[in-house]
Amino acid sequence: MPLVFLKLGGSLITDKRGVAAVRQAALDNAAREIRAALDADPTLRLVVGHGSGSFGHVAARKSQMLDGPVNWRAYAEVGAAAARLNRLVTDALLAVAVPAVTVQPSASAVARDGRLVDMALTPLQTLLDAGAVPLIYGDVAVDTARGYCIISTETIFTYLAHALRPDRIVLAGQVDGVYSADPLVHPDAHPVPRLTPDDWTAIAGGLHGAAGVDVTGGMAAKVRAMFDLVHAQPTLSVRLVSGLRPDAIRDAVLGREAGGSEITTKDEGPRTEG
Ligand code: IPE
After folding, report:
1. N or C end of the chain, less CB within 10 A?
2. Mean of all residue pLDDT scores within the chain
């Protein structure tokens, strides 16, 4: 029974240049592809996560949550913005009969100096075992050193991966994988199909922060977290795909050839120089 973590990136389901701007067509399509994956493999166990895009990131910037002294009003505003998007994602999944159940990260997460050190696992594990689809999202969290911090979906996936040992992680964004350079700026940039943890230095320079407002380090921080995770768990593979390419989410979740980029310890197949 394969266990897969899927993230719908903030770049995919929101317009990161707007304010609380959802990309409904992309969200609805992602929901349909999740439904299709569950139909194609009834043994699939799936944890879905989503980013915050023009909801949490913009609220964090506007409220100056991270810019000055601890401000619990700002913390509450950012948590509320992230939760607002979560309701929309839940609705989109329920509309196609995916039994998505939100497990609010900030309800139990505890960080120390920006690192997630504790989060309740039993509710999520119980839902998974029962055949439901736990839904988490990039959120705020209390932090024993800083007062509070923001935890990205990748941070939460990393924490969950240590406990649950997924077979695959799929990150679905706007861009089709890890490119040799930022494709939004350099039209001749090409995706790198297969990367091993050793390739980090070769591709790090081509990764940019993010288009639009981003308070969790943009693509570079997310991809770095996944490199570290694959290094720690060599049986895990991470695939980054564009959720805008038809069937990419479905195929990546099912472990089929799905394009984009794969981060894996298994060094096989063609390799494009970065
Ligand atoms: C960010 O989560 C959470 C908040 C800003 C509250 P992510 O880092 O997972 O979100 P995206 O994918 O960059 O939008």
Report:
1. N
2. 92
